[in-house]
Amino acid sequence: MMKNEIHTIFRADGMALNLVFLVLPGSSIMCVASAIDPLRAANRVTGRQNFTWTIVSTDGKAPVTTCGLPIGVGGAFRPDLKADAVIVIGGFGSRLQATSTLTADLRRTARAARAIGGIEAGAWVLGRAGFLEGRAATTHWEDLEDFAAAFPGADVRPDRYVIDGPVFTTGGASPTFDLMLHLVRTRLGMAVALDVASVFIYDQAREATEAQPLVSLGRLDGYDPRVAQAIRLMETHVDQPLPVSAIARRAGVTARTLEKSFIKAIGETPGAYYLRLRLSAARRLVLDTQIPMADIAARTGFSSAAAFSRAFSNAFGKAPVKIRKG
C-alpha cells in the first residue's frame, strides 16, 4: 500500500471502488450506517455500481453494536481478501481487540490495497498495526489524549476526519458521513454528492479540520451565538475552569446577560452547566478507563480527589469508586 500512495481513492475515477468493512463488536450502529449508507445512496442516485463492499467480522459471526443490534456479515476477515480499501469500524473495547493476529492480517491485506481507514475507535486498531507511525490521525474526542499517548509517533489531531496519504481516520458517526460525502464528491462530482446529502436531508456545514466538539450544539449556534461561544470556552477549559465572569467577558457580554441567555436557551445557569459538563467528562473517564481518581479530578478541574468525589456523588448519587466497581 505504501508504495502507491499517490493513487489515492479520493480522486475522480469512473471505476467501481471495492471496499471491505471490518466491523468490530461494540461499534456504534451510527458509525456503520454513516460509513456504508452514503455509498449505497450514491449507487442509487447515479444508477451505477460506483461502490461495492463486503462486511466482515473477526470471527464470521454478526458483531453486536452498542445498541444491541447485530450487523450481518459476509464472513470472517481474511488476509487474502482483495479490496481497494479496508476500513475498520470500532467502538467500545476496540483497543483491546487489536490482537497480534488481527494486526498482522491487516498488514498483509493492506499490501494489496490502495487505502486503509479507521472509523472512530477503529483508529486504535490501525495504530496497533503500525499504520499511523509518522502520519496524521484522529479518533473520537473522548479518547484523543490517551490515543496520543499510545501512539507518540502519530500526529494526533482533534479534526473531524483526517486523510494522510493512503490512511484515513474519523472521529465518530457524523464525521464519517462527512468523509464519505467527500469520497463521493471527489470521485463522482459535487452534483452527485449533493444528491446523496439530499437523500438524508443532511447539511454538511463543517470542514474536515474543524475540531470535534465535546458538546454538539446543533441549532444553538444560530439561536444564540453568545451561549455557543461560552460553551466552546467551557469545553476547552475543562481541566482549568474559567470564572463565569471571564467567560462572559470573552463572549462580549456581562455575567448577568450571559446568565439570562443560558437560562433562556438551556434552562440553567452558566455555572451549573459548566459543572455538569465537567462531571460528565469525569463520568466517562470513571466508566471507560482505569485512570486513577486523583488524575480524573485533575483532568476535570477539581482541586482535590475529595472535592471531586463529593461533587460526583451529589450529581450521580454514588461515589465514583462505587460506580467504577459497578
What does this structure look like?
With 326 residues, this protein is α/β, with parallel strands linked by helices. Helix content is 46%, strand content 11%. The protein has helices at residues 29-46, 94-97, 100-110, 122-128, 144-150, 173-188, 190-199, 220-223, 225-235, 244-251, 255-265, 270-288, 293-299, 305-316, 320-325; strands at residues 17-23, 51-56, 85-90, 115-120, 136-137, 155-156, 161-164, 167-170. The chain has a 6-stranded mixed beta sheet, sandwiched between helices. It has a two-stranded parallel ribbon with strand order 5-6. Strand 1 (17-23), helix 1 (29-46) and strand 2 (51-56) form a beta-alpha-beta unit. Helix 1 packs parallel to helix 6, helix 6 (173-188) packs antiparallel against helix 7 and helix 9 (225-235) crosses helix 12. The longest helix is centred in the C-terminal third of the chain and has 19 residues, at 270-288. It is globular, with a radius of gyration of 21 Å. The termini are far apart.
